[in-house]
Each structure stands twice: as C-alpha cells, then as structure tokens.
DNA sequence: AGTTAAACCTGGTTGC
DNA sequence: TGCAACCAGGTTTAAC
C-alpha cells in the first residue's frame, strides 16, 4: 500500500506527538519481514527523537540515558510493506491478530497493523550503520530534493534500458513512487509506461519529473490513497484514489480524452495506461 | 552488470 | 454455496 505520500502522512501524524516521548514497553506479534535484531524488552526506557522519512522507510530514533553517553542509542527502521499502517493510540485495546508491533510510550501506543506482514521493524544503531544502511544506501534521490535536477534525472534514465515504469518502481533513480503514483505520474507526463527509459528525451524527462512531483504533492494534500488497508496515524483514510486518472480504471473512460484505459502487466505488476494520451 | 522471475504473507473479489 | 484462481499499495533475493 503505502507509497511515499502515505508514509509521509503517517510520519506527520506521529512525529510531533512522539518527540521526547518515553518508551514504557514494547511488544512484538507475529514475525515481520525481518527480526527486530534486539531483545524487544531493551526498547523500554528509551526516549523517542524526531521521526524522519527516507523513501518509504521511517526512522524513529531512540536514545537511552544521557544524550551523549549511551551505548544503547539507536533507533527503529520501519517499513509498512504492502498492507501496513501505523496508529498512535491514546489507549490501546488488546492487540488484534494483525497487530505485530507496539511501542508503548507515555504519549500513547504506536501500533503497527500489517495483515500481509511484508512490513518491517528493525533495530539499528543508526541510519548509517547496518542493518539500516544496507536498506537505505541503495535508494535513489528523494523526489522533492532540489538537487535532483531535470538534467540529472534525464542522465539517470539514459543509463537504463528497462521500461520507464519499472525504473520508477525500482526506486534506485528516484524513490517514492509505487504502483499507483508511477502510473499516475506517467499519465500526467503523457509517457507510455513501456517506453524504454533510455529513449526518453530531455524535455520529456523534465516533464516526467515535474509530473511525479505534482502527483506526489497532490496525494499528500489528500492524505494519500486508501485502497483497502491504509489509514493515517489517527485512523483517517486517504482520498487520492478517488481522483486517480488511470490507476484501477481499466475499461473505464480516460478522464482526459474519453478513450478506454487499459491494464497491461509489466514486471508482474498491473500498469494502467491510456494508449492515446500516453506515447512512447 | 543489468533485467527479470520467485519469494515472502493474508484476505478480498471473481468466476465456474 | 463452495471452492479454485486471481488480485492487491513492496522489495529483497535468487536466477537468467
């Protein structure tokens, strides 16, 4: 589920309330993608720092004891996988069958619900140390980073022969777009998803980057997309899916030209495309 | 080296 | 109604 907008919406819902919160206890449910990597009891006594996002990951710093000294300092790298969501609960009910991680603090319980369990909660001593760095180091640029210029974006695309949709999904050129926003950004840019990345001209690359930024920004305004599972930290659903131009609209009319939106499959994933609005 | 399948899970929807 | 097949927001890992 969660692509960059959903993860960022989640971050915005938990960062301020949890800043400086004291961890009272923590518990794990069923196994997630990877083991926590540290006895869960050792999280108690920690103080939560500023939650930051990198790609679709959240980094939740924890420090123990005096700020400068503690050898126990580190944090949690969180990922919501396909079906995860985080809730910050004032009073947490008994965990349900899909509640796989609780961080109980004096400001409420941060609870991860994830039916499919593709999500992750992993301890690391820092974002830049293993195991977090193993996951984060391979990520591409943040989409809103001004350092990601159209020229750099175009140069990166030129190094790739794969379909542009697959390159967006891979996240090693630019992070943040998953299946929904990759489809939507390509539609907004008028580029067919099957176009080889290295065949995209400089002006079209610039257009794609702008479209990606616009799409992600609009989704942020709408609280992300809720297809099934996603809710923000307060339990609210996103609304972007209601104004998606192509995603999930196979067989329906294109909102721009009235033609029929098609579903094709690329890299085992559904791609939605308007063949008349999107050209190779 | 770069691209593409397989794998990890659960549950909802579709079709026979 | 039952059951099999297919589909779903992701991404690491293994295999061409």
Give descriptors for this structure:
Helicase, Ruva Protein, domain 3; 24% helix; four-stranded antiparallel beta sheet; 20% strand; 11 strands; N-terminal domain of MutM-like DNA repair proteins; globular; 6 helices; DNA-binding; five-stranded antiparallel beta sheet; alpha+beta; single chain; 280 residues
Summarize the structure.
The chain has 280 residues and is an alpha+beta fold.
Structure description:
With 280 residues, this protein is an alpha+beta fold. The protein folds into 2 domains: 133 residues, N-terminal domain of MutM-like DNA repair proteins; 124 residues, Helicase, Ruva Protein, domain 3 (Orthogonal Bundle). It is 24% helix and 20% strand. It contains 6 helices and 11 strands. Helix 1 packs across helix 6, helix 3 crosses helix 6 and helix 5 crosses helix 6. The protein is globular.
Total count of helical runs of at least 4 residues: 6
The domain tally reads 2
CATH class of the largest domain: Alpha Beta
Q: Give the terminus-to-terminus CA distance.
A: 28 Å
Sequence-ordered SSE layout with sheet pairings:
Layout: H1 4-18, E1 23-28, E2 47-48, E3 52-54, E4 57-63, E5 74-79, E6 85-89, E7 99-105, E8 108-113, E9 120-124, H2 132-136, H3 150-158, H4 164-170, H5 179-189, H6 202-221, E10 262-266, E11 269-273
This protein binds a DNA duplex (16 and 16 nucleotides) through residues 1-3, 6, 30, 33, 56, 79-84, 98, 114-119, 135, 160-162, 166, 169-171, 178-181, 224-230, 267-270.
């Amino acid at each position: 589920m969660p692509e960059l907008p959903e993860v960022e919406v989640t971050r915005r819902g938990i960062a301020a309330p949890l800043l400086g919160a004291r961890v009272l206890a923590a518990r794990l449910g069923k196994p997630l993608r990877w083991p926590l990597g540290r006895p869960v009891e050792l999280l108690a006594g920690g103080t939560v720092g500023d939650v930051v996002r990198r790609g679709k990951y959240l980094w939740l710093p924890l420090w123990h004891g005096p700020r400068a000294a503690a050898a126990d300092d580190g944090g949690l790298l969180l990922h919501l996988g396909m079906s995860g969501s985080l809730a910050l609960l004032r009073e947490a009910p008994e965990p349900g069958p899909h509640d796989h991680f609780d961080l109980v603090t004096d400001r409420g319980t941060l609870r991860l619900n994830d039916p499919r369990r593709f999500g992750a909660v992993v301890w690391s001593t820092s974002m830049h140390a293993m195991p977090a760095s193993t996951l984060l180091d391979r990520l591409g640029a943040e989409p809103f980073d001004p350092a990601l210029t159209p020229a750099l974006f175009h140069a990166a695309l030129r190094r790739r022969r794969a379909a542009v949709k697959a390159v967006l999904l891979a996240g090693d050129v630019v992070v943040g777009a998953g299946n929904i926003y990759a489809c939507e950004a390509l539609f907004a840019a008028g580029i067919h998803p099957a176009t080889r990345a290295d065949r995209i001209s400089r002006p079209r690359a610039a257009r794609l980057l702008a479209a990606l930024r616009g799409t992600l920004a609009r989704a942020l305004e709408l609280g992300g997309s809720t297809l099934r599972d996603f809710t923000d930290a307060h339990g609210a659903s996103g609304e972007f899916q209601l104004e998606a131009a192509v995603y999930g609209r196979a067989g329906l009319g294109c909102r721009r030209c009235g033609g029929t939106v098609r579903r094709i499959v690329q890299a085992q994933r559904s791609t939605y495309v308007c063949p008349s609005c999107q050209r190779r």
